[in-house]
Amino acid sequence: METAREGYEPVIGLEVHAQLKTRTKIFCGCSTRFGAPPNTQVCPLCLGLPGVLPTLNARAVDFAAMVGLAVGAQVAGRSVFARKNYFYPDLPKGYQITQYDRPLCVGGSLTIRSGAGWKTVRLVRIHLEEDAGKSLHPEGREGVETTRVDLNRAGVPLIEIVSEPDLRSGAEATDYMARLRQLLVYLDVCDGNMEEGSLRCDANVSVRKKGASQLGTKTEIKNLNSFRFVDRAIAFEIDRQIGLLESGGRVAQETLLWSSERGVAETMRSKEEAHDYRYFPEPDLLPLDLSREWIESVRERIPELPHQLRERLVREQKIPEYDAEVLTDTRSLAGYYEEVAARSGQPKLASNWIMTEVNAVRNKSGLTIEEFPIRADRLGDMVRMVGEGKISGKIAKQLFELMLQDPASPAELIERHGLLPIDDEAALRALAKEIIAAHPGPAADFRAGKEKTFAFLVGQAMKQSRGRAHPEKLQQALRAVLAEER
Amino acid sequence: MPIDRGTVQKIAALARLRVDPAEEERYVRELQAILSYVEQLQSLDVSKIEPTSTVIAGAPPPLRPDEERPSDVRDEVLAQAPDRDGDYFRVPRVV
Amino acid sequence: MSGTTVQESAESLGRSVGSGERSAVDVARSFLAQASRSATRLGTYLYRDEESILAAAAEIDARRKRGEALGALAGVPVAIKDNICVRGVPVTCGSRILERFRAPYDAHVIGRLRTADAILYGKTNCDEFAMGSSTENSAYQPSRNPWDLSRVPGGSSGGSAATVAAREAPLSLGSDTGGSVRQPAAFCGVVGLKPTYGAVSRYGLVAFASSLDQIGPLATSARDAALLFNAISGPDERDMTSRPETRPISLENLERGVRGLKIGIARELLGDGLDPEIRACFETVSKWLVAEGASVVDVALPHARYAIATYYLIAPAEASSNLARYDGVRYGLRVPAGDLREMYEATRGRGFGREVKRRILLGTYALSAGYYDAYYLRAQKVRTLIRRDFEEASRKTDALLMPVTPTPPFALGEKSEDPMAMYLNDIYSIPASLAGVPALSFPAGFTKGGLPIGLQLTGKPFDEETLLRIARAWEQKSDAARRLPPIAMEKAA
């Protein structure tokens, strides 16, 4: 299989549906909040009652245009909504309002990691459409199966982002998804929550012999809603197609559903013939006309994008690209880092601390950086101390643990818990004198030549100082005092 | 483009309409008559004509602000539902 | 008193209720009494709840007694076509598929009528989902022409037209997609207006063909039609196709006469199929216009002959999509079945009548893969040509005069077996629908047999006023609008 695989090149394109973070649905004023009891966020419109009409949500257009501009796409001066007609219980009107041959955005691209370097993935288009409701298929009683329909999600605004088939592996596809998700979260147009269905992906997969220019027959794998599924489903399908071709078979153009339990992609049973969706322009909505001025005003509101932030950190903070990548995972994390770096004056050290200690805690406890108990100013102060040599790495780790539980400042915590080593000569001499005075016998023994008792005296001194005495300097002081006093 | 029983069956399936076999012939005839009539449109040269997208031209209306407008129809609608399971609409199984 | 009350104009009724001269309850009782004499025979109503009508009237009287100012249509009964949603009331659209469905919300126009203090007066019979020209396609009952009960009242707003003609109600609302207000108005001898597309919000009008549908008033006079138009028209944020350019009609301006107006006549529309008595009436009105100081000019509508073909591709296509929601899932009829697919097919198979099915099949075909370009897309292009014809014609005219129907009212059953024959009735009404311009049907005369003849005026976008002004002037010359059908004059036993 290895040698056979190497002769083939996988060709992958992704269609991503992202739910826009608007307060209301795309064509009506119902709330889009997740997790409401069934059929409580509905109105005559999204219920598909007789006589209702769609009204387009301004913010949905705003968000969609912003995404288009952020990926360098052309935002159309005129785009048209269309009806996609088919029957399904969670499609209340019997058609979905989407955009067909005149989408909102055309073109654009996303830069992703490919191996050790970067690669540009071209986009075909981005368009607006409404989501369907939810069909739940529980088992019924008496062997009669029924489906339950909840229309809370019907009408939630989506953008569909279609890429060219420029991806060449499951790993590239996963990176593409991750960066696309990151961009949408940066723009604050999508919450990127894949478990809640805010981001969904369909993959178009085909293979061809390396060096061939023609594309192979592609299959579509639907509803991949986690990064892991994207990777595994694509890998599975690539293998399956190569296997088919190697054994003299042909790949059939079909739609597959990924089953994560069984780890296979299966033909969707419910799809018989290809659907004839009978697209036509939506007569209840006028063509969407956007002026140059309006489009430019959206462009002005685009915040710093992930790759721009990354490049800036590398430039300004002189940290490696790898660090910048980790630290710009979210805009808030990047902001946190910048504050810590500034406060501490230690950009690289700040980076290390965040990448390792802070993120370790966050990963284990699932906290966002906003929820993380050590605010940037406190961490910054701590990192400064480490950088200036005031505390050792080991002490810093202890301090970090304390800071997680206690909102006091690092300095206060050091004081309260006695974290700073006692290395002041005078203090150590005073301690040595104290110990010697308290243990005259062992002191005399030492002076008489019993080396072993020195360890005892050191131990006592450490105990007395609660471990804070600087070990070497303590020993020096003890020896000195023992030698002086006869 | 003649219509036959097969076509009528296909279109009826697309439109989820049951058409009795007894009625099929009648629909074939009627649709044939109508399609023959509309065939006259083919004689026009519309190669340089834009299809009508807006019936009455004018400034487009403002888009809807993104503010919640809760609705109170849900109880009335569920009460009239042909079949329900609590707060869900219920339908026979999807094959 | 009921005899004269039902012959009064809505304008006068509204004024006298508003001033306290008479009570809304008395007005309602008069019309209810009138309706009780004829509605069953005419088949005008699918729903009319006397109790709630009288209760609403009593509420109006109570508010007036409290010193509240009342709206322009205070206490005036307005019958509503049964494809317009009134909250809590059935809306069947003349179909079995919505037999027990009650609307949970008010249409925009209904809200406006409530604001005007009108009385919502029953739901009138119509062709199923507004598809038809005779009201014979109603799944429930036919309606009959008040002038001759063996004849159709026209369609699809047959009930709305007949009820006003028979004085069962002074005003009604219908809907017009290809002529469904104007043609029944002509057949019943009343005024029927199809507003400019976008002048009246479609929110709450059960959609047939979205790019053509408009709600329109039916009344016994031009002024009353204007009054009702003013009460319901204007932009609505819930309908993105409703237009802000819409302006209310000035009733004062309706009295200005026709002097100086330029009226266009398209000879293409006066061809062979036109009944000779209607043609004669047309000539009479044209001569009158000239005599009154208007000028009559020839205009060309070269693409009007393609209007029926264009319409019968666009309207069914949009309808096939608009009617997809009637699937038995969330409301309306459901025929139980073992699986979903069967449930859809059985429900829609039983719930829809033949004409609706025919149009859904036609529309689905016109949109289907491989046929979209040749049918739907091409029809939309020809529509552009027709719209341009009207734009061109309106550059040198204030209005166009043309017939509404090719024949006087036909007999029940006469055309119901041949769809194409039925469709060809719409030859004069469809062009204005495709162009989106305002169009008015007004009573012009009578046949020798005593059947009403209506004629049509079309105008510039948002200029309903000029059309009603011309109709108003004709009203003062002709007695056509003042004659009542015999059934309306039958006294109580």
Helix content of chain C: 25-40%
List SSEs of chain C in N-to-C order: HHHEHEHEHEHEEHEHEHHHHEHHEEHH
Q: Using only CA atoms, what is the Rg of chain C?
A: 21 Å
Structural class of the helix and strand makeup of chain A? alpha+beta
Q: Determine the number of helices of chain A (DSSP H or I, runs of at least 4 residues).
A: 16
In order across it, which strands form the biggest sheet of chain C?
A: 1-3-2-4-6-5-10-11-9-7-8
- The secondary structure category of chain C is alpha/beta
* Multimeric organization: heterotrimer
Low-confidence stretches of chain A: none
CATH homolog superfamily of the domain at 2-262 and 437-489 in chain C: Amidase signature (AS) domain
Low-confidence stretches of chain C: none
DSSP strand content of chain A: 15-25%
Largest sheet of chain A: 10 strands, mixed
Query: N-to-C terminal Cα separation of chain A, in Å?
Result: 84 Å
Strand content of chain C: 5-15%
Account of the 3D structure:
The complex is a heterotrimer of chains A (486), B (95) and C (493). In chain A, strand 14 (255-259) and strand 15 (264-267) form a beta hairpin. Helix content of chain A is 41%, strand content 19%. Chain A is of the alpha+beta class and 486 residues long. Chain B has 95 residues and is mainly alpha-helical. Chain B is built from 3 helices and 2 strands, in the order H-H-H-E-E. In chain B, strand 1 (84-85) and strand 2 form a beta hairpin. The longest helix of chain B has 18 residues, at 21-38. Chain B is flat, with a radius of gyration of 23 Å. By secondary structure, chain C is α/β, with parallel strands linked by helices. Chain C has a domain at 2-262 and 437-489: Alpha-Beta Complex (Amidase signature (AS) enzymes), CATH 3.90.1300.10. An 11-stranded mixed beta sheet of chain C has the order 1-3-2-4-6-5-10-11-9-7-8, with helices on both faces. The chains are: A alpha+beta (486), B mainly alpha (95), C alpha/beta (493). Chains in contact: A-B, A-C, B-C. At the B-C interface, helix 1, helix 2 and strand 2 of B face helix 10, helix 11, helix 12, helix 13 and helix 14 of C. Strand 10 (146-150) of chain A pairs antiparallel with strand 2 of chain B.
